[in-house]
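Give me the fold.
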Amino acid sequence: MTIQEFEKLGLPDTPGVYFWKEKGKILYIGKATSLYDRVRSYFSADLISTRGPRMVDMVYKSDAIEWQETDSILEALIAEANLIKRHWPDYNVKEKDDKSWNYVVVTRERFPRILTIRGRTLDVERQKKLLRVRKVFGPFTSGSALREALKIIRRMFPYIDRHSSSKYTATFYRQIGLAPDTASDEAVAEYKKNVDRIILFFEGKKKKLCKVLEAEMDSYAKKREFEKAAEAKRKLFALDHIQDIALIKEDVDGFSRTEEEPRAEAFRVEAYDTAHMSGKESAGVMTVVCDGEAAKGEYRKFKLSPEIGNNDVASLREILERRLKHKEWRRPDLMVIDGGEGQRNLAEKVLREGGLAIPVVAVVKDEKHRPKGIAGDEAIVAEHKKAILLANAEAHRFALAYHRKLRRMRDRRKGRL
């Protein structure tokens, strides 16, 4: 096929899946943010250097291109996986028994889990009867895109995965709304409904899912259970307005796209934390959550002055003062401090000294360093609780990782490694 023949087809500038075909046989299936832009890129002069000789050979052989539009990039990702599984085109895989791709597995257990598993691992776990499987979806060609897709789905229909099924982290995932509460019979029944809805979505049956939610909303409204009716309505709205901008930056057919920066109007939460060992290799960090999503490209590290030692309050002051010197970094809408009233008062003092009025909350921990409360304006805490806990958890994780790195660097300098 030639570029001239392609232009006559009139592909739309919408998300969807496309098919390269030869004499009616599907050679290749791909997903696209823009069907027109994506398919046109196959006619670029650098095709062989960017995608290799197999793709050049495929374009040369093809005599037709067909496509299906979808309402969102997320639905294009799921449609691509289902279609590849159905047709298994030659040019999508090097070998038909390839086991390196990712699959989404719904387990068969009292509280079904939603897992992502490599094909080869899935085979082994099934053979050894380590995993009882209800449904398998895939293959998904991009692991990073699948992870972003699952984040979107999880915000609509919270589910249990490997992390949130652990007794050590289950409470945290429930607190931030990513895993359901299964303490009551009613909650268990609602969770099973969520799993059924996730299955419908991965089967590409969005219209049927919407009808289910519409019927549920009407039923709750007739019974005057308005909170439940409002929740069903929220999920319907979310399905009709899927915010999948994060998928644009993910790999498309294995080729990386440029990462999008957080939107300028996004609500920005910054969290700060420190880590040290007896005051040595003190590490400070800043993490960022924008509109409820971790913006990892905005995270920052601060190697703290050794003179501070194990003085957490002094460490916090140094981090905040250094952060506020960066006028080029967008100011936060909310600051999250790890600690109690003392740390929060210090942060507010540093802000006043800088002539800034930014609300501050502090995440108070128990003896096992688990969140037990949030100190600060009650209205702000209620509205942004999930983002606060996420930013705080990310800051703790990021600070520990940076501290460990500093310790390894110290040990290398001393010749211990």
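The longest strand covers residues 280-290.
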